[in-house]
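Researcher: Here's the sequence for the chain we discussed earlier.
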Amino acid sequence: MNIPQDLKYTKDHEWVKVEGDVATVGITDFAQGELGDIVYVEVETLDETIDKDEVFGTVEAVKTVSDLFMPLSGEVIEFNENLEDEPEVVNEDAYGNGWIIKIKLSNPDEVQELLDSDAYKAHIDG
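Model: Thanks. This is the structure I predict for it:
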């Protein structure tokens, strides 16, 4: 299973890449594997400021729909519009072209609360 060292993670199986005051967010390789074939990604919170742990969108797979939770508080400044036509990119490239949103952070201190790759691996290994 792919768990890149340079990213941060949440217990809700999202990855976060922080660059300055902007964070790129997607779902982990583990999450896309558990969900199966992703058929739709919905984010209706563009340009909204949302608190950490609140729902910012959903991922729909063949068998289930899962909420997406904000890993950090901030404004949703970008949605990966490529996912509207090609949601399967989340399955194929979870940590690259399958990113879902970008957030302008409102509380950068929250980054310290995220899991590193070792802690995330321990979380999914139970």
